[in-house]
Amino acid sequence: MHQGTDSKGQRKRAVVLVSGGLDSTTVLAMARAQGYHCYTLSFDYGQRHRAELHAAERASAALGDVEHKVVRLNLDSIGGSALTDMAIAVPEQETAGIPITYVPARNTVFLSIALGWAEVLGANDIFIGVNAVDYSGYPDCRPEYIAAFETMANLATRAGVEGQRLTIHTPLMQLGKGDIIRAGIDLGVDYSLTVSCYQATDSGLACGKCDSCRLRRTGFQQAGVPDPTRYRP
User: Fold this and answer.
1) Domain that holds residue 26
2) How many structural domains comprise the chain?
3) 21 is known to lie in a ligand binding site
4) 18 annotated ligand binder
5) How far is the C-alpha of 214 from the C-alpha of 207, rounded, in Å?
6) How many cofactors are bound and how (predicted)?
7) Residue 31 pairs with which residues in a beta bridge?
8) Is residue 219 in some structural domain?
């Protein structure tokens, strides 16, 4: 049986978290290639890099999603991150430990809402582009965290209690950026549609200096393909 089909050979539904960046767009392409009907989910959470929301919509449409939903949150009301508090500068130098661009509990909040939508859709699969290789030190991108959330999800939902086990898919977990890009290109991903920069302009121009920009640029170098990113002059 194909991974993205049920016992009757029907295509299954999956909720795919998409940020508009390189990783999540690649994950969407992977889920589609596995045969899933993909319902894409983005969050307007008060982030400073709002160009990613437009990128998420563009990339989702280009890769043939069934429905794209944007959920509005106000994580900027609690702040605590350079991505949600305009008074905290986005670092342009590499930093040790967990960086200030970490958004407190972000993936827990996002996955919880994805879990709710999955139940409504009758979907048993959620895809997320977390990565343990180039993950910038974020604690909610580790395999231990994903395993713990999956356990919780199957305890906390009607679907889980009734035996419809939910799976959190993390196909990029052990891949470097170059490998991710090569995999995406093989699946037809147009990376010019994506935005990764933590402080991109409204039109999607990248700063070329933040941690996310550095990882992205290095990834294209590793993959041996031209970088389609539009950088600020």
Assistant:
1) 13-223
2) 1
3) yes
4) yes
5) 10
6) Binds 1 zinc ion per subunit.
7) none
8) yes
> pLDDT tens digits for 83-141?
999 999 999 887 778 889 999 999 999 999 999 999 999 999 999 999 988 656 789 99
Residue 201 labelled as part of a binding site: no
- 207 appears as a binding residue in the annotation: yes
Question: Has residue 93 been placed in a domain?
Answer: yes
Q: 22 a known binding residue?
A: yes
CATH number at residue 154: 3.40.50.620
Question: Is residue 3 included in any domain, yes or no?
Answer: no
Dihedral (Cα; 146, 150, 152, 154), 10-degree rounding:
180
**pTM of full prediction above 0.70:** yes
Q: Is 46 annotated as a binding residue?
A: no
pLDDT tens digits along 178-231: 999 999 999 999 999 999 999 999 999 999 999 999 999 999 999 999 999 999
Q: Is 212 annotated as a binding residue?
A: no
For residue 52, give the nearest of 222, 226, 210, 158 by alpha carbon: 210
Does the annotation place 19 within a ligand binding site? Answer: yes
Structure token digits, residue 170: 């993390």
Q: Is 210 a known ligand-binding residue?
A: yes
